[in-house]
Design a protein that fits this description.
This protein is mainly alpha-helical and 305 residues long. The protein has 3 domains: 32 residues, no CATH class; 91 residues, no CATH class; 155 residues, Orthogonal Bundle (Arc Repressor Mutant, subunit A), CATH 1.10.10.10. Helix content is 56%, strand content 12%. The chain is built from 15 helices and 7 strands. β6 and β7 form a beta hairpin.
Length: 305
């Protein structure tokens, strides 16, 4: 607040002419160009002029000033600040301008005392974002805190199922609730999609979930599961090692880092990394500090078939 007050005082001390000059320069930056037509007796000459200072985005200082003004407005409305959620950030890290963008945001959070306390940033992504953050020389190295968004707990799943049942005015039996938990593995997206399908199924006056229904679910989510299975399809897909670990767990039903490393003949560290990824999706579950087991039954049935 003190830093922001210092900026406000400095702005107030500037002359009116200086303010007009800054506004004029900002306006010029937003004009892409123009054309000049010169009429001569026998022909016309048309000159197209491109403004080299024009950018289809705000320059850093214009962005900063606009953000400060927005934060000031938020304070008047009794908000502390703003936190941006940038979803799908793995797209950004693949762009040639990624380092410049992250470096600017890092500098804003590290050194801009007027913005630092009032601006938060959350980047949501998957493997590409994690790899970029951990890369030597990455602007996000040693500043961004990495946290895996895991599966829902049993209590959270039951709360979600109860809430959806209330909203849909359709009830599920205890057996059906257990089926949803078992088949989804606690994956937030999968459990929501399963509930959507089940409620549609029940709305058509079909009372029991049959084997044919399960088979139709496997076909229905074939595109999603194909993307999960192979990282050549999507960046969040499983690598060859992760596929091997999962297939080994299907055979063993339960396994530890050591038993899986021995089975697949790779290092313990590589197995531990693969298990972390698989457990984060719910396709396997961590039983205790050492053991893992198969999770989402629907995905397992898709892999088997």
């Amino acid at each position: 607040m003190i830093a922001r007050l210092q900026e406000a005082i400095a702005e107030h001390q500037e002359s009116l002419l200086s303010n007009w000059r800054k506004s004029y320069r900002r306006l010029l930056r937003q004009i892409p160009g123009g054309s000049i037509k010169v009429g001569l007796p026998k022909f016309d000459v048309s000159l197209n002029v491109v403004n080299p200072d024009c950018q289809r985005r705000l320059i850093n200082e214009d962005f900063r000033q606009d953000l400060l003004r927005m934060i000031k407005l938020l304070h008047k409305k009794q908000f502390t600040g703003v936190c941006y959620l940038i979803d799908g950030a793995e797209f950004i890290v693949s762009q040639p301008w990624a380092n410049d963008a992250w470096s600017y945001l890092r500098a804003m959070k590290d050194t801009d005392t007027a913005l630092k306390p009032f601006v938060g940033l959350i980047f949501s992504g998957y493997r590409d974002l994690k790899d970029y953050q951990q890369r030597v020389g990455s602007p996000l190295l040693n500043i961004a805190e990495v946290e895996w968004l895991g599966v829902l707990s049993a209590a959270n799943m039951r709360s979600l199922i109860g809430y959806r049942s209330q909203m849909e005015h359709l009830s599920l039996t205890n057996q059906e609730i257990e089926q949803v938990i078992t088949w989804s593995g606690g994956h937030p997206y999968l459990i929501q999609q399963l509930l959507n399908t089940i409620f549609d199924y029940k709305s058509s006056h079909k009372s029991q979930i049959t084997e044919n229904f399960i088979s139709s679910l496997i076909r229905q989510y074939d595109v999603d599961f194909s993307a999960w299975w192979d990282n050549k399809t999507k960046s969040y897909g499983f690598s060859k090692l992760e596929q091997s670990v999962y297939l080994a767990l299907i055979q063993q039903r339960k396994g530890t880092v050591e038993t899986l490393a021995q089975e697949i003949n790779v290092s313990i560290g590589e197995i531990a990394d693969a298990l972390e990824v698989l457990a984060g999706t719910g396709v396997i579950h961590k039983v205790d500090d050492e053991q893992y087991k198969i999770g989402a039954k629907l995905f397992e049935q898709w892999v088997i078939h």
